[in-house]
Write a structure and sequence with these properties.
The protein is built from twelve helices and four strands. With 262 residues, the chain is α/β, with parallel strands linked by helices. Strand 2, helix 3 and strand 3 form a beta-alpha-beta unit. Helix 1 packs across helix 7 and helix 10 crosses helix 11.
């Protein structure tokens, strides 16, 4: 992939979208991860106002420090970048105290993880509404269209997705070209939604390189029975997640009323 050419294409696409929509700028949730770092740098490169938002909820210190490092670097490089921190920890705790919890701890943990993402989406849209900005998605192709590794109406609730046609490996190539901090480029990917150090690979059961292989292989028409050992395991993981998360990737089903009923 030609990182410079792709970067310029995305920046041009973002600029054109904003200009046509009579929008003033962008809002990006910055987590300290590679995807949000690349996305916010691309937005900043347009010259339009770019608001970087930190939204910690019991966040690991290394995630917070990477986010701060990245935002600091962006503000040094671009005079159109501003930032704000909204600590949602108390909001999250108040929510937990108000909702019923008569189910298994595992179900509660996963539901609350998605709640974190949805609280952040609400905050981003609040800020976007104040400034007439667009909420910019940070999902990549593997997450958004491969395994559906995101929260519906959480980090999946956005106005536009500039890097959603890039594989995770391509995001890293863009990150190197854009000079994203090394600490972010070298960090293990994590969604940070559980308040601990678990990585994306630990949650999914496969690395992004493996998932990219499975995604490309499945498009070639291969089946689970074509593989053995680790390849078979990865292909099964990818296929299962791709199937179960179609509700995130497809348009919302609409019940069509027959015209004869009118």
């Amino acid at each position: 992939m030609k990182a410079e050419k792709v970067s310029k294409h995305i920046i041009s696409w973002l600029k054109e979208y904003v200009e046509k929509g009579n929008i003033k700028g962008f809002v990006v949730g910055v987590s300290g991860g590679i995807d949000s770092a690349v996305t916010s740098t691309l937005c900043a490169s347009t010259g339009f106002p770019t608001l970087c938002v930190e939204m910690p909820i019991h966040q690991a210190e290394n995630q917070v420090s990477r986010a701060k490092e990245h935002i600091g670097q962006l503000k040094e490089r671009f005079d159109n970048v501003s930032d704000v921190q909204i600590d949602l920890t108390n909001t999250f705790e108040n929510f937990k105290n108000e909702v019923p919890a008569q189910v298994s701890p595992d179900k509660i943990a996963h539901s609350l993880a998605n709640t974190r993402a949805r609280l952040r989406m609400t905050s981003l849209y609040y800020l976007a509404g104040l400034h007439n900005y667009l909420v910019v998605g940070t999902g990549n192709k593997v997450e958004d269209f491969g395994v559906g590794f995101y929260t519906k109406y959480g980090d999946g609730g956005v106005d536009l997705s500039p890097i959603a046609d890039l594989m995770k490996s391509e995001v890293y190539e863009i990150a190197a070209f854009l000079k994203v901090p090394k600490s972010i480029q070298e960090a293990e990917p994590t969604d940070g939604l559980f308040g601990d150090s678990r990585t994306d690979e630990q949650q999914i059961g496969a690395s992004y390189d493996e998932l990219e292989w499975a995604m490309r292989t499945k498009k070639l028409g291969k089946k689970v029975t074509d593989f053995v050992d680790r390849e078979k395991e990865v292909f099964e993981i990818y296929t299962k997640l791709n199937k179960s998360n179609q509700h995130k990737m497809l348009p919302i089903p609409v019940c069509k009323i027959p015209k004869t009923f009118n």
